């Protein structure tokens, strides 16, 4: 819950840092905060004392230090969650974007999977029904947390060292024309010079972009090719401007218009609810399943682990499908509706009282829910271009955390009062309602196909 709450106010400065100073600074700050938070968790664990012991200054400060550590780590995560889409656009060409974004999301999901699978193995469960042996149980509990926290702190420190030593903010040669424009704009901003759109899009800059991929010898030999490329670029640009004038009545569009499209409304709502439900399941999974499987604590931990591992595969598969088809909206809608269907299957699976059936439904749910994440980032980047990918992914992540906080609070209250079924049904209905913008878009698309003259006969315009 702390992670979701912290994200909402911190995303604005985090996005500004990412856009202003680039990937290296953003990732470096995030790595530093994660390392500091991890070591503070170790400190809070060392200060902790059993409840039967007389309260001391160190013992009473243990929990506040732990919460401060969580807040610091949550701030670091905010700087890192928007990185995959930006990293893919900075380091990879257009044909590699979808797969690179999927792999970036893959890394985040690995941590979630380990968070489900490792703690039940390292930290023993405590039997509160026998208070006489609680002190000895506390020692065993503290030993497990010591392994968990110090291991995590060591990994975070190693990660910080690797980022500091090896990670560069951008490649020496831009992988795409769009990225080359961003490099020019960022350098101009840092130098106090703000190049205009015409300067960045000029033919001379385009020629410079082409030359940046070639050796000095090949540049001399291919001067005529560069001249032909300039002429072709000018012709293509004029054609695109002409088409834009016919379809929209204007030769220019402000970047903010991308966020006002109905397609982005679907992306915002579906990404927010889908990811919010994902966070909610991660928070309440043990509580909900223990209601139906009270003796399966370890198995429930592995259910969450399996869900996230399936999500890793789903992220990669989604990226491959998107790369092969290029059908951003359709692939996104298919994955979302399959997420809704598998959420319904999970809701019903608990009544089978078969943990194996729960495993199957959670694996499918994780596959489609996590596979949806990189699709959402890529789709938002497409429909909001030329807005920076860090901004569009930051808005989607903000949506996810806002919905995550609201959904988790409501589902927790429902679970406490009416049981796990009510929480599951609430999640299912929320996901179904978030799909309404997609249904509206497809309905209007169908109308346009059936009645070709519908749009031309009036002033109605639908922006997709």
UniProtKB/TrEMBL annotation:
<feature type="transmembrane region" description="Helical">
    <location>
        <begin position="334"/>
        <end position="367"/>
    </location>
</feature>
<dbReference type="InterPro" id="IPR049680">
    <property type="entry name" value="FLVCR1-2_SLC49-like"/>
</dbReference>
<dbReference type="GO" id="GO:0015232">
    <property type="term" value="F:heme transmembrane transporter activity"/>
</dbReference>
<dbReference type="InterPro" id="IPR020846">
    <property type="entry name" value="MFS_dom"/>
</dbReference>
<feature type="transmembrane region" description="Helical">
    <location>
        <begin position="60"/>
        <end position="85"/>
    </location>
</feature>
<feature type="transmembrane region" description="Helical">
    <location>
        <begin position="147"/>
        <end position="167"/>
    </location>
</feature>
<feature type="transmembrane region" description="Helical">
    <location>
        <begin position="299"/>
        <end position="322"/>
    </location>
</feature>
<dbReference type="Pfam" id="PF07690">
    <property type="entry name" value="MFS_1"/>
</dbReference>
<feature type="transmembrane region" description="Helical">
    <location>
        <begin position="21"/>
        <end position="40"/>
    </location>
</feature>
<dbReference type="GO" id="GO:0020037">
    <property type="term" value="F:heme binding"/>
</dbReference>
<dbReference type="GO" id="GO:0016020">
    <property type="term" value="C:membrane"/>
</dbReference>
<dbReference type="GO" id="GO:0097037">
    <property type="term" value="P:heme export"/>
</dbReference>
<keyword id="KW-1133">Transmembrane helix</keyword>
<feature type="transmembrane region" description="Helical">
    <location>
        <begin position="97"/>
        <end position="118"/>
    </location>
</feature>
<feature type="domain" description="Major facilitator superfamily (MFS) profile">
    <location>
        <begin position="260"/>
        <end position="464"/>
    </location>
</feature>
<feature type="transmembrane region" description="Helical">
    <location>
        <begin position="426"/>
        <end position="451"/>
    </location>
</feature>
<dbReference type="InterPro" id="IPR036259">
    <property type="entry name" value="MFS_trans_sf"/>
</dbReference>
<protein>
    <recommendedName>
        <fullName>Major facilitator superfamily (MFS) profile domain-containing protein</fullName>
    </recommendedName>
</protein>
<keyword id="KW-0472">Membrane</keyword>
<dbReference type="InterPro" id="IPR011701">
    <property type="entry name" value="MFS"/>
</dbReference>
<keyword id="KW-0812">Transmembrane</keyword>
<feature type="transmembrane region" description="Helical">
    <location>
        <begin position="395"/>
        <end position="414"/>
    </location>
</feature>
<feature type="transmembrane region" description="Helical">
    <location>
        <begin position="276"/>
        <end position="293"/>
    </location>
</feature>
């Amino acid at each position: 819950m702390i992670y979701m709450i912290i994200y909402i106010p911190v995303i604005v400065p985090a996005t500004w840092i990412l856009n202003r100073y680039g990937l290296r600074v953003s990732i470096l700050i995030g790595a530093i905060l994660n390392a500091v938070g991890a070591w503070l968790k170790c400190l809070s664990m060392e200060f902790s004392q059993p409840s039967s012991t007389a309260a001391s200054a160190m013992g009473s400060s243990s929990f506040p230090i732990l919460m401060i550590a969580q807040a610091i780590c949550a701030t670091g995560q905010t700087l890192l969650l928007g990185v995959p889409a930006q990293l893919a656009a900075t380091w990879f060409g257009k044909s590699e974007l979808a797969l690179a974004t999927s792999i970036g999301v893959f890394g985040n999901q690995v941590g979630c999977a380990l968070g489900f699978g490792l703690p039940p193995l390292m930290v023993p469960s405590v039997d509160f029904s026998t208070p006489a042996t609680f002190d000895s149980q506390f020692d065993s509990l503290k030993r497990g947390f010591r392994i968990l926290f110090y291991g995590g702190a060591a990994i975070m420190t190693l990660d910080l060292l690797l980022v500091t030593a090896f990670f560069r903010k951008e490649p020496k040669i831009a992988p795409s024309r769009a990225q080359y424009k961003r490099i020019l704009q960022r350098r101009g901003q840092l130098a106090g010079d703000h190049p205009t759109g015409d300067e960045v899009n000029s033919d001379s800059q385009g020629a410079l972009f082409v030359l940046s991929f070639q050796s000095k010898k090949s540049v001399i030999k291919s001067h005529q090719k560069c001249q032909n490329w300039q002429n072709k670029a000018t012709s293509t640009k004029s054609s695109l401007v002409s088409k834009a004038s016919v379809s929209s009545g204007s030769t220019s569009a402000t970047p903010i218009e991308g966020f006002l499209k109905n397609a982005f409304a679907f992306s915002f709502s579906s990404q927010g609810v889908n990811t919010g439900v994902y966070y909610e399941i991660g928070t309440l999974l043990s509580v909900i399943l223990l209601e139906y499987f009270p003796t399966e604590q370890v198995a429930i931990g592995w259910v969450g682990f399996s869900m996230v591992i399936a999500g890793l595969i789903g992220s990669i598969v989604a990226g491959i499908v998107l790369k092969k088809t290029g059908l951003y909206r359709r692939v996104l809608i298919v994955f979302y509706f399959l997420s809704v269907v598998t959420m319904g299957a999970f809701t019903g699976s608990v009544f089978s009282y078969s943990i194996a059936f729960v495993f199957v439904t959670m694996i499918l749910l994780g596959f489609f829910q996590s596979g949806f994440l990189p699709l959402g980032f890529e789709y938002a980047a497409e429909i909001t271009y030329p807005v920076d990918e860090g901004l569009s992914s930051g808005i989607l992540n903000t949506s996810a955390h806002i919905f995550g906080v609201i959904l988790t609070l409501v589902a927790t209250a429902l679970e406490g009062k009416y049981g796990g079924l009510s929480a599951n049904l609430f999640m299912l209905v929320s996901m179904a309602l978030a799909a309404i913008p997609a249904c509206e878009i497809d309905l209007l698309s169908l109308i346009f196909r059936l009645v070709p003259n519908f749009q031309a006969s009036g002033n109605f315009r639908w922006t997709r």
